[in-house]
Amino acid sequence: MGKGRTDWQFCWSLVTGSLCVASFLIGVRWGIQGVAIAYSIAWLITMVPGFAIPFRLIHLSGREFVTAIWPEFAGGLAMALVACGWRLMLNYFGIQSSAVHLFSTVVVGSVCYLGLMLWWSPPVIEELGVVLMNSPLSRFAPLLSRAIRKK
Prior knowledge:
Largest sheet: none
Strand content: under 5%
Order of helices and strands: HHHHHH
């Protein structure tokens, strides 16, 4: 849209929309898991061109993109590993409650991710502080600023 190529966006939307609908129709024969698997395959097929087309328009390489998002991506991977470890620990201790699994894993994962982001301090954390200043959560912005300055 920013480059004035909404015609490309329209054509790409027709392709991806058709592929998504087809994946649902194919996957429904095997229930909800079939739909999820078929949709995942459709998404994987469209992912590369879905990034390549806009990247080509703005002259952005895949390497530059990955370099820019690496801290957040690595933090997400680390959070996923910690959350999986937490779930394994809950299972090991015989805790079966789905609510305990859900809520405690969300808290553990969130604390892990936020801690890693504050430690690595990518530019997105500074942007978060700016966004918080203009929101109902503005009282948390000074805490975030102090945590970044302590580094």
